């Protein structure tokens, strides 16, 4: 199916932002390198105009009661339900993930819409005991303002929806800068949003907008003081650029950056479960999730049992066209393949024994970049294993002592996701204790990837510290206000201060 046919199956009408003129962004499919189409780019001036529109939308939207804002998000969820297959397919075409995962990503969008609709009737604050007689103290949550969302190619639509569904019910407009590699899925989401907004009838213009372009366009958003929150997903290097710029104007950042996620496999582990979870975590989405499993820390006593099973499973994994039933699709581009090759070269130089890896299907797809997943037995956790390479590479080391395994797991600079396979309750509880995993996500007997939207999603250290999606992540999209009301006829001062005139 061509992209035009896909769009027509989404019944979205003509594409805004698309064009064939020079100076536009050419978008190709990682499946075969073919041209999908051209998209017009924004300029810093057009970003500034769009921020202006978002500010106007905010003035209206913040006055709408939360549950009514939730109704718009409910309608968006309905559009997503109706178009799950087509949008999932578009994700596959533009990003290269397998169809099953493309649809899974849209399901994640539907789930967060449901969550946000419920939340729109809560957004609850606190009452707090005042030390003064006849006084009431409380904490309220108010809409914050336009939210800038910067998303990556690997989850081209779900990350927008986590932010947008929450921002909208919290009373905030959204300006979205999608990855330059996946603008068409963004335009499709925007078209679905506009249709939900038309059904809703009372959404102000500019409530959801897209800005397309390279780093200068991201910077225009990041530097604009009218955007109080920047929610950015991508590499640690990107976060390192964005965070100080936002901080220098006292803006707020929600950072969702890299991960170097490990699974510890203990002697009591159910190895059948472990193999399935490890393989999905390591090779699913061609290793291009921030939650992908990149390191294995295996107890010495089971290492020789587990490794052959893993290697056999890696060999069985089919690599190929993601629309035709393969389990692993292409890498996003040539740079990703080169990074994978380089990491494997480095692993060998550092004493690693590599199985798999290397480009495949080059004859059939000379302009696409498919790679065999690689499993690497390392003599120790060091060098290349300490870095996140966005590719299907799984490094394995042995451990003897559980505390040492936890220390190894926590020794990397990122702290996103982690998992332990163990049927020993002492190990499991220790792993989830203050001295256990230092990651934002810590699982027992499931893998590192594939989090549900109900929990807060994000991680510590160089992962950036942000939390998106479920639990109370909504609070970052709101302004906290502490209010004290004096309903007495006296004016007692706090801390018992006497100030008589
Ligand atoms: C990402 O890779 O940026 O937990 C997000 C997961 C998915 C989201 C990944 N729900 O793997």
From TrEMBL:
EC number: 1.2.1.3
Top-level taxon: Bacteria
An MF annotation (GO) of this entry: aldehyde dehydrogenase (NAD+) activity
Active-site residues annotated for this sequence: 256
Domain Aldehyde dehydrogenase: 21-482
Keywords: NAD, Oxidoreductase
Organism from which the protein derives: Iodidimonas nitroreducens
Protein family according to the UniProt entry: Belongs to the aldehyde dehydrogenase family.
Phylogenetic classification of the source organism: Bacteria, Pseudomonadati, Pseudomonadota, Alphaproteobacteria, Iodidimonadales
Pfam families linked to this entry: Aldedh
Top EC class for this record: oxidoreductase
CDD domains: ALDH_F7_AASADH (cd07130)
PANTHER family in the cross-refs: ALPHA-AMINOADIPIC SEMIALDEHYDE DEHYDROGENASE
Complex and partners: Homotetramer.
Protein name as catalogued: aldehyde dehydrogenase (NAD(+))
